[in-house]
Amino acid sequence: MVERITIEGTRSSPAVDCDPNKRVIHLSGESYPENTFDFYRPIIAWLDEILDEEAGLPVTLEIALSYLNTGSIKSMMDMLDRLDEAHGNGAEVSVIWRCDPENERVVELAEELLEDVSLPYDIVTD
To answer: Which of these, 62, 75, 77, 101, could form a disulfide with 125 (CB 3.0-4.6 Å)?
Structure first.
């Protein structure tokens, strides 16, 4: 059984909830942790594990980040690549990226990152 990961958000790192029952990764806040690779490593490992555990069940990545630094963007791309590969192998995966419509940079970033994947996604601006 995959364990739940819950990380409280800080000024520079996002709140994280990796829920194995719902098979959802939720990221919110701002993402510019001091060591991005170390911060995202357990989240990416969790994603790999949940994708391998029961391939027939859906997995969703929910993003509500108002700022991402370069390292966070790289980690986001890694997660999107893994989800896209799983989608290509028949897995039911999706991305919901919630953006403040006033934050054009994040809306553009979401569009740029998601245009390269074939998996279902929704950019929500509300």
So the answer is: 101
